[in-house]
């Protein structure tokens, strides 16, 4: 069969110029593999580039993710309308830590959410009573140093008796914040804070700025009076203000901290905080004002079955200066305190005294040092520490009652109150460890950027609470 030219051209075994390599030198065997080598090199470079790019992208992703997880350093916010810092210190007497969760307290929680809170409460000074603690808050001093060692006590040097109506300067030692501001040429206003009515040093309790205590003044009137200060010109607005509410201390004593009726008092106080916030917002200064919301002490339930009787301890009534929860005894000079303490402890350990195991009696200088309750002649030589929930009375009575009390060892958790602060130098939603209320004095002077008087607080404490200014 003859093969035509077309058939020959179509035959696959017929070599053509198009199928020949460009270099026809058969002496170089490697030359035939060059295209494959180039392809492999190209693919390797491409893969290396892809891997490097992927690694770079992964590194960048991780870097920016890590950077995003690092919180931005919060700094103090500049004032808006006010020209200088203002501190408003508010006391809710007997507001035990945890009350803010007993019922709805939207206004208190608003301050917590956008401010700074002592996560497990504010620690009172010992004794955990109203007047010693309120005065410690504004002086930064323990009671042994500011002189108000109890709500009621006797000065052994003079025989004079201190009550909560005593306004003579001789009782009130130290330098409270309103006096500190007056010494610096700044204005202060006080609304019923214990000790504020005392004319002392440069503070003369001016009529327009110092309210004489009157428990019949409604809470609404107190709030509105404070708000009116913000209607003044900037130069006339007090740099430091106090506001005091008796609740919920009264209800805590009457019903105890666990009674449902305590919630009414908590709700009322919260509504007053709401009234204050609304008034400050209407005036455009809410974010400018440093609000410090505190209590002076907590509260614990007590009942008659938890009683210790001093008749069982052979202690005459005239020796007693304070019964409960702080037992304070000043025996006559012919009965050495050391011997009295030894005899009391002997009886307490004997088992003959009902509930005797819940009372510990000390010479004041042998009290735990953390109580800071010895360095004053106003403190009687014998101090009894009563366990939480127990009370001391002189003689057995037939009455039966349950209520609440405070004044116990300040290490007892039920004695804690609250610290909630909101303002330009307080972090938003921040929790801080609990601390003693003697630290508040330095906190206020730091916010106002003024020098304070010597006190028992630590100079560095404000750095742990306040935002840096820059």
TrEMBL record:
Keywords tagged on the record: Membrane, Transmembrane, Transmembrane helix
Molecular-function GO terms, alphabetical: hydrolase activity
Superkingdom of the organism of origin: Eukaryota
UniProt cross-references to Gene3D superfamilies, sorted A to Z: 3.30.1360.180, Alkaline Phosphatase, subunit A
Membrane-crossing residue ranges in chain numbering: 38-64
CDD domains for this protein: Enpp (cd16018)
GO cellular component terms, semicolon-separated: vacuole
Protein name: Alkaline-phosphatase-like family protein
Upper taxonomic lineage: Eukaryota, Viridiplantae, Streptophyta, Embryophyta, Tracheophyta
């Amino acid at each position: 069969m003859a093969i035509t030219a077309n058939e020959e051209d179509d035959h696959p075994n017929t070599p053509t110029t198009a199928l020949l390599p460009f270099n026809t030198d058969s002496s170089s065997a490697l030359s035939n593999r060059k295209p494959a080598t180039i392809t492999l090199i190209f693919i390797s470079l491409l893969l290396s580039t892809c891997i490097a790019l992927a690694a770079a992208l992964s590194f960048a992703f991780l870097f920016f993710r890590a950077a995003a997880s690092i919180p931005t350093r919060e700094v103090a916010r500049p004032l808006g309308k006010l020209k200088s810092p203002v501190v408003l210190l508010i006391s809710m007497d007997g507001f035990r830590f945890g009350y803010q969760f007993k019922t709805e307290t939207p206004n208190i929680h608003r301050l917590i959410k956008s401010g700074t809170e002592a996560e497990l409460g504010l620690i009172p000074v010992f004794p955990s009573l109203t007047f010693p603690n309120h005065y410690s808050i504004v002086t930064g001093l323990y009671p042994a140093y500011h002189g108000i060692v109890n709500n009621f006590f006797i000065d052994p040097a003079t025989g004079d008796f201190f009550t909560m109506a005593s306004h003579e300067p001789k009782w009130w030692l130290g330098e409270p914040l309103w006096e500190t501001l007056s010494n610096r040429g700044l204005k202060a206003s006080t609304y019923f804070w214990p000790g504020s009515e005392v004319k002392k040093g440069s503070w003369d309790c001016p009529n327009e700025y110092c309210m004489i205590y009157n428990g019949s003044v409604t809470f609404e009137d107190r709030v509105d009076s404070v708000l009116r200060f913000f209607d003044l010109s900037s130069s006339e607005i007090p740099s430091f203000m106090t506001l005091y509410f008796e609740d919920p201390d009264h209800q805590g004593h009457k019903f105890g901290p666990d009674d449902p009726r305590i919630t009414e008092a908590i709700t009322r106080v919260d509504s007053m905080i709401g009234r204050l916030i609304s008034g400050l917002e209407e005036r455009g200064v809410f974010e400018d004002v440093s609000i410090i919301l505190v209590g002076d002490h907590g509260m614990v339930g007590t009942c008659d079955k938890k009683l210790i009787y001093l008749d069982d301890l052979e202690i005459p009534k005239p020796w007693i200066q304070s019964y409960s929860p702080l037992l304070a005894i000043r025996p006559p000079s012919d009965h050495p305190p050391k011997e009295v303490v030894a005899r009391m402890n002997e009886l307490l350990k004997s088992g003959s005294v009902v509930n005797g195991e819940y009372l510990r009696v000390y010479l004041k200088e042998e009290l735990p040092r953390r109580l800071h309750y010895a360095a004053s002649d106003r403190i009687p030589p014998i101090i009894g520490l009563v366990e939480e929930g127990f009370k001391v009375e002189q003689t057995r009575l037939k009455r039966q009652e349950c209520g609440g009390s405070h004044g116990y060892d300040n290490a007892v958790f039920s004695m804690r109150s609250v610290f909630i602060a909101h303002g330009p130098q307080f972090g938003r939603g921040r929790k801080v460890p609990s601390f003693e209320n003697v630290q508040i004095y330095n906190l206020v002077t730091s916010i106002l950027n003024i020098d304070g008087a010597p006190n028992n607080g630590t100079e560095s404490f404000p750095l742990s609470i306040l935002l840096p200014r820059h």
